Amino acid sequence: MNLIRNFAIIAHIDHGKSTLADRLLEITGILKSGSHETQYLDRNPISRERGITIKLAPVRMQYVNHKSQIENNSSNPENSKQLATCNLRLETLSPEYTLNLIDTPGHVDFSYEVDRTLSCVEGAILLVDATQGVQAQTIANAYKAIDKNLVIIPAVNKIDMPGAEIEKTKKQLTDFLGIDEKEVHLISAKTGKGVEEILQAVIEKIPAPLQNHKSQNANNSSNQDSGSLKQITALTQSLIFDSYYDQHRGVIAFVRNFCGQLKKGLKVKLAQTDKVFEIIEVGIFSPELQPKDRLDSGEIGYVVTNLKDIHQVQVGDTIIDEKGLSPPLSGYKKVKPMVFASMFTTDTNDYLSLKKALDKLYLNDSSLEFKSIYSQALGAGFRVGFLGLLHADVVRERLEREFNLSLVLTPPQVEFRQENGQYFEPYVKLLIVTPNEYLGAVMQLCENFRGKFLTMDNKSQITLVYEMPMSEMVSDFYDTLKSVSSGYASLDWEFLRYQAAEADKLVILLNGDPVEEFSETVVKSRATEKSIMITKKLREIIPRQQYEVKIQAQFKGKIIASERIAPFRKDVLIKSGKVIGAGDVGRKRKLLEKQKEGKKKLKMIGKVEIPKEAFFQLFKRN
Questions:
Q1: pLDDT of residue 198
Q2: DSSP designation for 32
Q3: Which of 246, 247, 433, 514 ranks highest by number of CB atoms within 10 Å?
Q4: Residue 151, in any domain of the structure
Q5: pLDDT tens string 376-393
Q6: 343 bridge partner residues
Q7: Burial group, residue 597, by CB count within 10 angstroms (0-12, 13-18, 19+)
């Protein structure tokens, strides 16, 4: 009998995932109630301060299922009689289950962490806050689990809260999932009410992992002889779903083992990079790393690779046998960043430190993309790709805190494609959940941000589907959505397609010279609005020079916005408090003409001096 259960907790942001994980850890004896920090699995200080989970967190728990043994034996009178006469035997007769839990983030920017998690489990607890109801990420994450054919255990959380609308939330879940109300668990992760029943449901409803898992390639081959089938069952297939770098032991990979055994001293290969290495150590998450003799099929744990080149170990890769007999697992699709920003260190000597830091972050954040760039104003840096604005902000803060760097991050922008002179703009599909009373305001907002209505589902609350240019969504759409809905509307999105757009590069000129850091690709309908905003802001933050500074915005070869910074006026006729050449008009004119020529020369051959503080101020405009 396979007593392993692999499952995740998925939910909208702030619906209680980490709190539920705390209770599960207490029930299974990993933690002692009242003697640990809340949201124990959220180890990152940024995560704790912001009150959001930004990283998946695996943990292994052992759980003795007394209820299962009692129920199994109740149908057998002889067994029931034995249990009744000797309760001391209950502990021995009750099966002990190994529960591998992976806690997940809820914010849409980190939905790729949910994808990675769901590729490693057979089931998921879908948690919904009774005070907020079904939200956008509730729906999006549930669809992800359904697409992977996972068992979903629905639960309404925070039933002890004063504003809890238990029956309403339960109906939202049953309508959405098409299930009976009896299947919805009512819990309070804070107090622990109903949490033990959730554990029972995990054991009873989520299937055990398949032993000697075979890849799709192997399953689809119907003409294999018995010898080849024996060979397949002995293959190694372990999916890498996360990793980090240890300076002494190299890359440590988090894996779900689907087939075969992993153990110390075994030589294996990385399917994508074709790199062979010897395993230094394997173990489980308790939640700290705990060494074990081996990881069997169906288990979740870690592998110490001792590989020092972090680019050789990629999230989504498969660890296979040394000879390469095993086909790689399909894993999950690689997520492409959609928002880009330039990143520089305030101290140019820290460039190499930033490169090393980005390399290390990439290990457990495979969505990051970065390439070297050079700026006339800010020096060497990187063009970095992110999944969204929160992702960009969290990465910046992690780099500054964990690697002691001081950074400048330009405003995140979307990347247009250009083919044969035609620009193509990225579009996204928005899923918006809103109470009925805010429907008109939300629909008007979507139209103002160039959104196109697709569908609407009007049940216990409104679910709207729009398509929208991503450049609009990453501006201030989310903040405005929260404002017009009094904070009740929620948003999820996914990339849709690239679409032809009338767009061009909005080039910012200072005294005729283009400044790449201030320039970006925009659509024609937003060019004037954006150019006026940038030129006015630059006029405020660029200090006055010895000569006039013209700030211009150029779009499709035409100047569409312009500002001017007047020069300092220095009275060259006064020196040491005395008037030079008093009464001598010719000398005065000569001095003034000399000053005029000097300013003209500075303007022609000199660059406008822009202190880094001006970049900081402009880059905070969003």
A1: 92
A2: -
A3: 433
A4: yes
A5: 767 888 998 887 777 888
A6: 382, 409
A7: exposed
Range of 448's domain?
Answer: 417-501
Q: Show the tokens assigned to 575.
A: 């020196």
Closest to 8 in 3D by CA, of 56, 45, 46: 56
pLDDT for 45: 56
| Six token digits for residue 307 | 């590989």
Q: How far is CA 507 from CA 126, 344, 526, in A?
A: 48, 21, 14
Q: With H, G, I as helix, E, B as strand and everything else as coil, classify residue 603.
A: helix
Q: Determine the Cα–Cα distance for residues 568 and 589; give it in Å rounded to an integer.
A: 19
Q: Please check whether residues 125 and 75 belong to one and the same domain.
A: yes
CA distance 237 to 258: 5
One-letter identity of residue 509: L
| Tokens (6 digits) for 342 | 């330039």
Same domain? For 24 and 154 the reply is yes
CATH code for the domain in which residue 429 is found: 3.30.70.240
How far, in Å, CA of 57 to CA of 105, rounded? 9
Identify the CA nearest to 128 among candidates 155, 146, 152, 106. Answer: 155
Amino acid identity at 428: V
Angle of helix 195-205 versus helix 66-74 axis, rounded to 10: 60
Domain stops at, among 414, 449, 480: 414
Q: What integer best gives the mean pLDDT of the chain? A: 80
For tokens 């109903």, the residue is 194
Q: Tell whether the model's pLDDT for residue 307 goes beyond 80.
A: yes
Over residues 288-292, the mean pLDDT reads 91
Q: Answer yes or no: do 245 and 354 share one domain.
A: no
Round to whole Å and give the CA distance between 222 and 87.
51
3-state secondary structure of 590: helix
Bridging pattern class, strands 4-11 and 123-129: parallel
498 has which bridge partners? 426
Q: Where are the alpha helices (DSSP H) in 502-560?
A: 524-541
Could you give the angle at which helices 389-402 and 351-364 cross, rounded to 10 degrees? 120
Total tally of structural domains belonging to the chain: 5
The reply to whether 441 and 405 lie within a common domain is no
Q: Are strands 281-285 and 289-292 parallel, antiparallel or unpaired?
A: antiparallel
Phi-psi region of 246 (alpha: psi -120 to 50; beta: other; left: phi over 0): beta
Could you tell me the CA-to-CA distances from 181 to 135, 138, 175, 556 in Å, in that order?
19, 17, 9, 59
Residue given tokens 């153990």 in the structure block: 263
102-147 confidence digits (pLDDT tens): 888 766 667 777 888 888 999 999 999 999 888 888 888 888 899 8
Instruction: Quote the CA–CA distance of 609 and 8 in Å, as a whole number.
Output: 54
Torsion angle in degrees (nearest 10) through CA of 329, 330, 335, 336:
110
Do 525 and 389 lie in a common domain? Answer: no
Beta bridge partners of 458: 462
Alpha carbons within 13 A on the beta-carbon side of 265:
3
**Cα 469 from Cα 498, distance rounded (Å):** 9
